[in-house]
Structure formats: C-alpha cells, structure tokens
Amino acid sequence: MNTAFWIISIITVLGAVLAITLRNLVHCLLSLVVCFFGIAAHYFLLRAEFLGVAQILIYIGAVAVLILFAIMLTRHVTGMEGPRELGGKWWMGASTAGIIGVLLWWCVRREVLTAMWPSSEKAQGLVAVIGKALVSEWVVPFEALAVLLTAALVGAVVIALEEVVRKR
Amino acid sequence: MSIPLSYYLTLSAILFAVGLCGALTRKNAIIVLMAIEIMFNAAILNLIVFWHYRFGASVTPQMFAIFAIAIAAAESTVGLALVIAVYRHYRSVDVDEMRSLKG
Amino acid sequence: METLYQLLISIKTDTPIGRWLGPVPDWWLRAVAIVVPVVLILAVFLTLFAFLTWVERKTLGRIQNRLGPNRVGPIGLFQPIADGLKILLKEDIVPRGADALCHFLAPVLFLTVPLMLFSVLPIGRGLIAVDLNIGILFVFAVGAASVLALFMGGWASRNKFSLLGAMRSMAQIVSYEVPTVLAAVVVLMAVSAAGKHGVGSLSTVSIVEAQAGGWVNVSGWFIFQPWGLVGFILFFIGTLAESARTPFDLPEAESEIVAGYHTEYSGFKFALFQMGEYLVMIAMSGFTVTMFLGGYLGPGVDLPRMGWLLSIFWFFAKLAVMIFIVILARGTWPRVRVDQLMGFAWKMLLPMALVNIVAFGLWFYLGSGPMGWAVSVALLIAAFALLTLGGTSTRLGKRTYRYSS
C-alpha cells in the first residue's frame, strides 16, 4: 500500500511537471495523460472506484482528445514548437507558484489533522449507492448538469464554427 | 498501515502549485488550459482524500467530485473552442498577443 | 483471482499437501493467485489470436471461392507460426523525422491497453480475473483510453496521411462508443430490474447471472427479449466499429492507397498493431456474449462438479460463433465511406439506442407480459421505420443513360 502510493505519486507529479515544461505540444499532452492516469490510480487507492473510472472516461477519453483536436486545429504551418518562456520573466510566475505551494504545504503538514482522522475503513465507493443517490436525492443537480453539458456542447460548436457567411 | 492524511494533502498541494506555475509561465494558451486542468484535478483529489479519511459513510463528497469533474470537462470544452476562435482571428495562440478586446 | 486465492489458502490449511509443504507465507499465495490468471489470459487469448488469423484467412478464402493457406502444415495450420517468424525477421523502419519515443510506444500501448479488457471477462462460472465492482464501466474506460494510443501511432510517423487516418479512426471510435454504451445501459437496467430490491451492479458476473434461470438456462438470455435483440444488434455494430473491422475498416482497407495510422510501421510493430486490433475484436465479442448471449450459461451449468467445465465450453462456443459472424461480415459486406459512417452513428444508431431504453422502460413497467412485449416491439419497429424511411436517405432518381441510345 505504501509503495503503491509513492510510485503513483511520483508518476503523477512527474507527469504534471513534464506537462508544463516540455517544448513539444503533443508531448506535453501525453505527459498530461500520464498525470491523469496517476490521479485515477490514486482514486482507486482511495477506494473511490467509480470516480477512478469516471476520471479515465472523462479526462483521458474526452478532455485529452479535445485538447488534441485543439492542438491540431491551431498549429502553425511550420511545426508545433515555439519559445516556451515568457521572455525573461518566467521566474516571476514560477516563484509565485513556488511560494503558494510552500504556503499550502505548511498549512497541511500539521499532524493535528492526521491525528484527528486516521484512515477510515468505512469508505466504500459502491456504485449502487452513487446511482441511487443520483436519482433520488441529487436528481436536480443531475438534470442541471445535463443542461449545462448540452449548453457547453452547443456553445462550443457555435464559437468554433467557421464564419463562412461573412466572407461575401 | 496506510498513508497519513497529510501526505495526500501535500501531494495535492504540489500538484496545485505545478499547475499554477504552468498557468502563469507558459505562453501557449493551450498549455495554460492544460495547467488549469491539473489544478482542477488537484482540488478534486483533495475532496476524495477527505471523503476517504473522514466522511466515508456519506455519498455527498463523491457527488461533489463527480459534478466537479463534469463541470471541469464542460469548461475545458468552451475554453478550447474560444482558443480556436481566437486563433482564427489572431493566427497565433500566444497569450501575449491577445491583449486587445477590439476585434 | 479471489477464488483462486481462497482455494490456495484452503489447500494450505486443510489438505495434507499443505501441511507437508510447511509454512508458506500468505503473500506468496497472493502473488501466485495474481500471476496464474495473468499468465492464463495471455496464453489463452494470444494463442486464440494466432489461431484466429488462420481461421479468418481460410474462411475468407472459402467465401471468395478459393482455398485459404494450405501449404504450411496440414491444411495450413502452421501458417500463423510462419507469419510470426516472418514478421519478427523483417526490418524495422523508423522514418527519419519521426518522433522516436512515441513511434516506439504507440504499438506497445495499442497492444497492452486492450489486454486489460480481458481481466473483467467471465470465462466460466467463478472464472474471472478481477471481479470489479464497476466491470462494464471499466470496459468503456479502456476503450476510451486506447484511442490515444492510436493517435500516437498516427502522429509520431510524421506523415500527413498517417495523421489524417489516425484522426479518422479516432473520430470513428469515439462516435461509435456512444450507441455502444447506450446499448449496454439497457442491459444494466435489466440487471437491476432482476436484482434484489431493484439494486443492480455493474459487475460482469452479475450481468451473466441475471440471465440465469429459465428453460435450461437459455431462455433467460437478453437476446430473446425485444429490447435485447435491438441492443445486441447495436452492440454488435459497435464491436465492428471499435475494432475497425469491415464494414468500418476505412483506416486499413486493402483498397485504400495508404494504410491509415499504421502506414509507417513495419515488422514487429505492425504485428503489434494487428494483434491489438484482433484482441479488441475478441474482447468486444466476448462482452457481446456476456451481455446478450448469457455469457457462460447453457444447459448443464448448474451441475455440482462438472458445471464449471461446461460453462467454459459454452462461453468459448458462443465466442466462436460471434467471431465467425464478424469474419463473415468481413467477407461479404462492402465498406462504408467515412461520412456515411459518421452519419450512421449519429443519425441512426444513437436515436435507436435511446428509443431502445424507452422501450425497455415500457416493457418493464407494463409487466413484461404480452402487453409489454406488444408495446415495446411496436415502439421499436416504429422508430426503426421512421429512422430509415423518413431519415436522410437519398432518393434515387430515374436512371438516365448518357452514352447509349
């Protein structure tokens, strides 16, 4: 259990770091997919199996493919690489993120939380319970989510539509 | 024995910081959107971690996480459509060049 | 895996052999219980793949009025071995501008990701590698994840035609996942309707067990219900499209000029692509059998001792029938154009799948007797008629002859 956590965590963080540092856009995307797989594995470790599979289905099956198509549609003619730094000011962004990261780590490293809440065996991500809750107690957010996804779909198609009509 | 809670929280803090660094540093709008997805994932991982350690009997945190994942997917859809539309106008996805609201 | 682990533990504690072997640590037994199903799956299904290439070539040959391979070994049975040797010895060409890492990884991922599908396939009674709580959802997640391996193959070759072929294949697989998943949703609704307190499960074993009972374990199969038959046809079409078989094999058809996403691959990497595609076909046929044809159920499965052997036999018999139908489809049906393909998925299969769900609801709530049958059958036929006749069909005009009088 411990070794699984460390291996998966290293894979996840490595995937995320590579996703923001590589030059080639498609390589960035592929390491982002590795990061998503790592997070799905963490969900499986935390016994939230339905969420792990939903992560794979939604993030890797849909969002990554979407980013891929966006990369394909916005390529320059010459290639996919480009200068990756923001001029000479990249260290400002990196140091801001570093400071926020250190602050967050300092907040969560307290042993108070860990002592209060050791691991609980009550956590069972049973799909039947989730399904029942989705149609009984959470049905209104569920339907609202369906409307939201439809609106996002229609909106994305309308925004990205070729403006053929105006080129008269 | 299993992992202490603070290890998982540190992991999600690191992921959030990495995503934030990417969003602030990179010039390519698509990479910025990818970094925002990393931040989303870090936050949702936090939700599930707290569900596992404290609220395992209830289904509400999982609901929260499911809805958050779906909304993140919808947001990335619209964001990428916007990037494509802006690319058609500016012929580049460099965030430095998208600085005027005038069409 | 769990049953094997329990079996090993009981051998260790109860039988004389266990006592004679001495104290074996528990994690050894767990490791054995993990390794044995993995090795068995690899051995059985990879051998099945090799045998299947021979079956396909012979069948296609007979359909096309010729003998298939018959030189290598008796009736050509050693042809797969000869093919394997040939392809191992071929030169491995990597294009100069190709992305070396992705070019190498793409066929590897394309083969190994579908191998995970076999871990939730119930081969016999009590014989499943991992009885996941979320079995069927895992199948669709793996299908969604294997799309990216395909893209890597096409993009890493640095060839415009490869990229175009990869994009088309991705669009095909992603489009046909939707009616496939909706056809599976009907099965899950039926499983939960048959379960206790209306609570079902996504586990593949519970899907098979929900079809048990009935006359010699056969009449409970979902294909014999109206919504099951339509669901079976939809899922079967989805199988053909997910594994890019005819009539949906535009990326790799023999009459196309380039071979889609695996144009620039030669030698063993090409063999890995073919292996991955065949494995997807075998696995999806297996899931069709599991969901609609009763899985490992058949007459005689409930016998106390020999039941599980018979269940293995029934499963592989049904799998053989499904794969044979897929091969026959390849030999006899023409292939569709890519725009016809997308139109078919979104305009015909998707509405049909949605109507199928409604038909199951009506069938269930009208008591699943003659009334329910009549209403659901009428609804399905009406929807089919509307979609085919009233849909986007090209009216063929009167034929005009231009060059003859």
Architecture overview:
The complex is a heterotrimer of chains A (168), B (103) and C (405). Chain A has 168 residues and is mainly α. Chain A folds into 2 domains: 2-82, NADH-ubiquinone/plastoquinone oxidoreductase chain 6, subunit NuoJ (Four Helix Bundle (Hemerythrin (Met), subunit A), Up-down Bundle), CATH 1.20.120; 126-163. Helix content of chain A is 73%, strand content 0%. Chain A contains 7 helices and no strands. The termini of chain A are far apart. Chain B has helices at residues 5-25, 29-53, 60-90. Chain B has a single domain, classed as Orthogonal Bundle (Helix Hairpins), CATH 1.10.287.3510. Chain B has 103 residues and is mainly alpha-helical. The longest helix of chain B is centred in the C-terminal third of the chain and has 31 residues, at 60-90. Chain B starts with a helix and ends in a 13-residue tail after the last helix. Chain C folds into 2 domains: 1-89, no CATH class; 91-388, no CATH class. At the A-B interface, helix 1, helix 2, helix 3, helix 4 and helix 5 of A face helix 1, helix 2 and helix 3 of B.
SSE layout and pairing:
The complex is a heterotrimer of chains A (168), B (103) and C (405).
Chain A: H1 2-21, H2 25-45, H3 49-73, H4 90-108, H5 111-116, H6 127-136, H7 139-159
Chain B: H1 5-25, H2 29-53, H3 60-90
Helix pairs in contact in B: 1-2, 2-3
Chain C: H1 2-14, H2 16-21, H3 26-63, H4 79-89, H5 100-115, H6 135-156, H7 160-194, H8 204-209, H9 226-242, H10 268-292, H11 307-332, H12 338-365, H13 370-389
Helix pairs in contact in C: 1-3, 3-11, 5-6, 5-10, 6-7, 7-9, 7-12, 9-10, 9-12, 10-11, 12-13
